[in-house]
Structure formats: C-alpha cells, structure tokens
Amino acid sequence: MLYARIANLYFTIQSENRVKKICFHIQKGGVGKTTISCTVAWGLARRGCRVVLLDCDPQANTTSWVCTKQFRYDFTDIFRGRSIDEVSVPINDNLSLIPVFSIDGELKNWSETRLAESPRAFEFLLDDLSKMGFDYAILDCSPSFSLLEKAIVCASDEVINPLSPEFFSVDGIEIFSNILQGLERNNRRKIKNDKIVLNMLNKSFATHRAFSESLQQLNYHIVTIPQDRKLAECQGAQKSIWEYDPKARCIPAFEQLIDLITGEHDGE
Known about the structure:
Helices cover 46% and strands 16% of the residues. It has helices at 2-16, 33-46, 61-66, 75-79, 84-87, 107-113, 121-131, 147-155, 169-187, 206-215, 229-236, 241-244, 251-262, and strands spanning 20-24, 51-56, 89-90, 95-98, 136-141, 158-163, 195-201, 221-226. Helix 9 links the parallel strand 6 and strand 7. Helix 2 crosses helix 13 and helix 7 runs parallel beside helix 8. The radius of gyration is 19 Å and the shape is globular.
C-alpha cells in the first residue's frame, strides 16, 4: 500500500515536471517554419511559461533571428559532452535558445555520421530539458525528412505543420501523414498531429481563399496567419513581433495558435 502511494506520488511529480515537446515541420521550404516556431516560443514565454527553443535546422535561421549574443558552443556540443547550461543562450527571463552555427556548423555532419549510433539522442536531450524545469521545448526543423528530422519528430509529443497557400501544400500534408504513420508504427508510439498553420494568407487573392476553404475539409485545427510585412521586419530587427509592433495584424492569429497549444482554446 505504501509502495503504491509512493509510486503514484513519483509519477505525479514526473508528469507535472514534464516538458511539452512541439516540433514544427513539413517537408517543404518557404512556408514559415522558423517564423512560426520562434513567434510561438516568444509568445509562450510572454505568458510566463519557461521555454527552450531548439534550432534543429543547419541553416541556423532561428539562431540568426533570436540570438543577439555571441555564443561559443552549438547544438552538437551537447552530444559531445558539453552541458546544456554551457550551450544554451538566455534570450529573456523565460526563453532560452539552443543555437547552431550557420557557417561551418556540425549539425548536418553529425546527423549524417553519428546520429545512427545514437538514435535516441534527441529523446535523451529533451528528457534532460524536462528535468531542468522547462514547460515547453519548441523545435524548428529543416524542410527535409532525413534521419535527423525523423529522430526529432520521434522525440516530440506533437508535430504542427506550417503551410503556405499553394496548390501542392495539400499533397505535402498527405505525404507527411503517411511518413508519420510509418514512424509511429516503427517506434510504437503515438505523436499528436492535428494542427495546421496556414501562413501568409491574403484573402484578397481568390486562390488563397479557395485553398483555405479546401483545408477546412481536413480533420485538423486550422490556424490562419495573415500576410504581414511586420513579421519579416521584426526578424531583421532581431525582435519578437510583440516587441517590434504590438499592434501587428498577425498577433491575434498567433495568440489563437498559442491558446490551442496550451489548451486554453474552447473550440477543441
């Protein structure tokens, strides 16, 4: 009886301290994965959540936007024995970044030469982040679906698909869903995938409206981000959209997406 009570207490504490791992991914470039993942990370941090943003794309666009400080180590140094504290860069009181070098970075090379030897490396890393008290880990991936992206997806609790309003995007969702189902079977686990972020929508374009309507037929929560030049401008200024322009027209849509992620949306 006492053992059962201790076990229940242990698992309660573990669940309370567990980081929620969210990956933004689709096997297509130019859809705004970095824009969405960074903005969501900033938005969660604004709400008081402890957030770690992981730049999992060798192009390092997330790092270039978010990080205004010099850093000595990058993502792969953790897998070589550096501590998370040594590698992570504090962005503000609630947001930290695990960066990657954009020039001569080792993430792509490491994933091609060493990841196969440690296929659960990202799972172990995210477990360590959970023990550090983070509430959310936001992972920004490259548009490919190599061993690197598959390992990240398999280590995540949820994958959210960013799309642009283009004809072939629906095909991309179907292809992604098929690959994800294969990963779930092979790894014997379920990965949540019920949200699409339709990015850069301009309702004055008939093709954009038609595409948006076609997405509504799919069994996903659809969040629409309107075209907003302020999003591009804030990246150049290395600021969040809330810092750059608190009245930007895209902000309500991002707040809606964050509501869905945190479970504060009443339309589930």
